Amino acid sequence: MVVTAVLDEEKASSETEKPARRKRLLAHHSLAHKAAAAIMVATTAVALVCVVAFAAASYATLDSRASEGIEDESHRYASYIEAAQLDGDELLDFLDEQSELMGGDMRVTLIASDGTVLFDNDVADVSTLGSHAGRPEFVQAELNGESSAGRYSETLQEVTLYHSVRLHNDDVLRFATTQSSVWGMMLHMLGPCAVVVALALIAAAVGSRFLAQVISADLMRIDLDRPLESDAPVELAPLLMRLDAQHRRLEAQASERRQYTANVSHELKTPLTVISGYAEIIAAGIAKDEDVKSFAHTIHSESQRMRSMVDDIISLSKLDDMGKGGASGDDLGVDMNQTVSLESLANDACERLRPYAEDHGVSLACEIERSGNEPVVVRGNMQILSEMVRNLVENAIRYNVEGGRAAVSVIGAADGSAVVRMSDTGIGIPLELRERVFERFFRADKGRSKAIDGTGLGLSIAREILSQHRGEIKIDSVYGEGTDVRITLPAAPPEK
Fold it and tell me: In what order do the strands lie in the sheet with 117-120?
């Protein structure tokens, strides 16, 4: 009944958690959304990089070609003018004719030696133009014969390239052309860029759905019972390894739970059968008068044994609850911040169990070793630690031999840590079974353990108690000679 109730409680808890798990699952983004976002971001980033790189490369190429173009044109015109010895109206007529042939791609300006503009194919009335005597391209051409210059317009976001050549009559012939800046070229490419981004969105929508289907198909092929044997991409290997580890862990827990349930049922069934059998004989009136007292004693003994077992099972259940889901002792109403004197616990256990030791013909000693004058104290729950020490001392007596010895030692270290040692000259534990003594309901000698009322839970309880107190337990034993149990507890932190 106890086991059934526990299983029903676990089932109810699982059913309660299902809607919450489903809600958390639906709250997550789908694979398609994540794939779409990744594709869009990657495509947009690549597009922007390509636009910037293309604009920069185009600017450099066009700048070089434009500079070479106006330089070649200026040299060609200057050579012809020099050869033809053009001057005055003839020169102006020639420039006017050639300007019409250029189609407005280049601006041609003729500047007199005093800076006066004589001709400009971009301005109908050159008298409206101011003096160009201070223009850098004019000054340098007058001094050196020719010059090149460039000026950037913030308003137009354009660069104007100039090349000037001094003619035979000291006039300066200037050619000019405009070129968009890098930023200007990038602004002109916003349209193509927008098209690329739109295509990226379409590709993301289509590609993400496809990728999600592919990934989902790979995931659906995973065999949860044998994940490492599944036909899945190598990228899923870490996931499969985690699933396999989790599967093995769950199988071990399920096996442990089944074994624990079977052990509890068996251990409780045995005394109940004895109690029921003897009670039935007495109730039927078929027991002899001289046997009734013996039967009653057996019933009482078995009921006490069953009570001890139920108490141990309840203790283990509480300790398991303290170790699950991050639950602390405080969450379960157990004060784990008490200052506990191990000396007092050891002395109390010895005083309480001394009559029990005498009944078994075992001498019991209690020793205290301090590092200095400070008492040996730890931080934890006094009742739980007291129960653990008393159970271990009782084991040292119970599994001893008549005329044997049992000793309890409390040792305080200089760093504040403490050691409780229980040693006996009892039956000992075989080497091959030493690691199993912490298993629940395990008995190294089942026949002898039952004969002396052992439940097989004492060391399991001790280990769980130490786990809650950040302590550890170590057992050394020689079969037929005795056992040494050593418990180490950390130093008590300073009180706040």
Answer: 117-120, 107-111, 172-180, 158-166, 146-153
pLDDT tens digits for range 448-493: 444 455 556 777 777 777 877 788 888 888 888 899 998 888 876 5
pLDDT at 319 over 90: no
Q: Percent of the chain beyond pLDDT 90?
A: 3
DSSP assigned state of 399: T
**Three-state SS annotation for 123-134:** CCCHHHCCCCCC
Joined tokens for residue 309: 């077992």
Q: Residue 487, SS3? A: strand
Residue 230 to residue 238: CA distance in whole angstroms: 13
Cite the DSSP H helix spans in 145-236: 182-188, 190-220
CB distance 380 to 469 below 8 Å: yes
Query: In 3-state terms, the chain is what percent helix, strand and coil (to 5)?
Result: 60, 15, 25
- Residue ranges of domains in the chain, CATH in brackets: 231-333 (1.10.287.130), 335-489 (3.30.565.10)
pLDDT of 8 reads 47
d(C-alpha 198, C-alpha 204), whole Å: 10
The Cα–Cα gap between 283 and 78 comes to: 140
Helix (H) or strand (E) run with residue 178 in it = strand 172-180
Amino acid at site 381? N
Instruction: Band the pLDDT of 180: cuts 50, 70, 90.
Output: low
DSSP, res 234: G
| 102 vs 398 pLDDT, higher one | 398
Distance between CA atoms of residues 489 and 421, nearest Å: 11
Least confident of 14-23, 113-122, 211-220: 14-23
What interhelical angle do 237-284 and 2-27 show, nearest 10? 160
For residues 107 and 70, the answer to whether their CB atoms sit within 8 Å is no
Residue 107 · residue 121 · CB < 8 Å: yes
What SS3 class is residue 345?
helix
d(CA 50, CA 56): 10
Helix (H/G/I), strand (E/B), else coil: 233: coil
